[in-house]
Amino acid sequence: MSTIWGTGEGDLRPTKGYTDLSVLRVRTPLGGTVDRVTDTGTLILFGASGDLAKRLLLPGLGSLLASPDENERALVEGLTLLGSGRSDRDEEEWRQQVRDGLTSGGADEDAAGGIADRARWVAGDPTDAEDLERILGEAEGRPILYFALPPSIVEKAVDVLRTLDLPDEMRLALEKPFGSDADSAAALNRKLARIVPERQVHRVDHFLGQPTVLNLLGLRFANRVFEPVWNRENIERVEIVYDEKLGLEGRAAYYDDAGALVDMLQSHLLQVLAVLAMEPPASVDEVGFRGAIADVLRATQVYSGGPVLSGTDAPSRRARYTAGSVDGRDLPAYADEDGVDPEHKTETLAEVAVEVKNRRWAGVPFILRSGKAIGDPRRRIEITFRPVAFVPEGLSGRAAQDRLVIGIHPETVELDVTMTGNGAPFRLGQGELGGELEQRPLTEYGEVLRGVLSGDPTLSVRGDVAEQCWRIVQPVLDAWRADEVPLDEYEAGSEGPASWSAE
């Protein structure tokens, strides 16, 4: 390989095998800019035949290609897409999939066609040293390895990578879950650290690319109304809910071992909690932002302050769906789905109460919930404020507590506040203020892929954070595996078990 000079963390050092390096000014998540070294590179998608590549990754690249920001478009325009799977595949079929995926993300036909025409397919087993070396040998310029594969296969592939001669500035992108518990996550982190520096590892959690999650930063830290009251003195309870209508959808091979807790709460919803509850970082970048996330999750644990989930004294509960209908579509019981082992007692609905044990949040329960096959799914962050200490005599009635509801899908904000004049001049009632949040042209995956392609890990999960997320949920996993928490049932298309009804 030829050696030329590139830039790392503000230093100059030799890097292997790159051509056409240039400085590209790239937008940061909140609209700032940073200079990044870029080049013609190859994005190698391991598991490219899977649903993730087709439904999310390629449309995410397409949204970057359709961006009004020319620097974001440039991240994709010079890119070669190399798809890889264990089975051989017709290259024209792969190129058509690339073309369709990019256009579904908003790219025009000509731009998508240019990328698709350069796309290639290489069959091989990423856990086999000879195959993996051959696949890497097909890369042009900087290789970016994206593992859209189960954790067990990723761990084996990482072991193989350690035996190969690799380019210094190679980047790795991994899908969650990162490991299967805290110990395996720590072991994987140690292996990754022997291959590339931490800032070149992108642990992808696309919830960090959610418009709602990114808008939380402005709402919290640049808003005169909410910034002073974002604490335990004013907030009584926080709920982060992400339910969905979809059932298993053929994902038994992964989901029946993971369940709702690992699939959603351990990863996505804890990341949302971290952004919601973090202390103000000095700057929103890969150091300040990720450091603030790590700090708040280190202070997070299962709730210990007494009953906060209706109908139970436990800080967690679980359930799975029985046969039913969602939007006119009949679903079998989860236990009867193809590939499911009923003895696993896998939950499709999970709810866990946690607390952040620091000065800002001590005593406030954070309720995390996610479920499948829910008839009227909620996807939102709901913040309930404490009642005021004093209400003057002469004001009649009793309004509900003030609430801030931030919608995740669709992206909305709604403030329910106490007012008077509800049918009488001095009668208390509830008024509503609301609106839709500004939409970004990038999809959630487009946002995180922007960071992967530009070398900006701000929206990637740091290694220690991945370990903390496992630590937080481990007591719940242990209790469930020991059958200390009953596995309730709910009909597909319902809102969940009747015993879970809100207080």
* SS-derived structural category: alpha/beta
Please tell me the total number of domains. 2
CATH class of the largest domain: Alpha Beta
| Total of DSSP H or I helical runs spanning 4+ residues | 12
Overall pLDDT score: 89
Question: How is the CATH topology of the largest domain named?
Answer: Dihydrodipicolinate Reductase, domain 2
Question: What do we call the CATH homologous superfamily of the largest domain?
Answer: Dihydrodipicolinate Reductase, domain 2
Q: Helix amount, in percent?
A: 25-40%
Number of strands: 22
Kindly provide the radius of gyration, computed on alpha-carbon positions and rounded to a whole number of angstroms.
Answer: 24 Å
Shape: globular
* Low-pLDDT residue spans: 1-26, 34-38
Question: Main beta sheet, described?
Answer: 10 strands, mixed
* CATH architecture level-2 label of the largest domain: 2-Layer Sandwich
Furnish the topology, listing elements before pairings.
Blueprint: E1 3-7, E2 12-16, E3 22-27, E4 33-38, E5 41-46, H1 51-65, H2 70-77, E6 80-85, H3 91-104, H4 109-118, E7 120-123, H5 129-137, E8 142-147, H6 151-161, E9 171-175, H7 182-193, E10 201-204, H8 211-221, E11 235-242, H9 252-277, H10 288-298, E12 300-302, E13 316-322, E14 324-326, E15 329-331, E16 349-356, E17 366-371, E18 379-385, E19 403-407, E20 412-420, E21 428-436, H11 444-454, H12 463-481, E22 487-491
Parallel strand pairs: 5-6, 5-8, 6-7, 8-9, 9-10, 11-17, 13-22
Antiparallel strand pairs: 1-2, 3-4, 11-18, 12-16, 13-16, 14-15, 16-17, 18-19, 19-20, 20-21
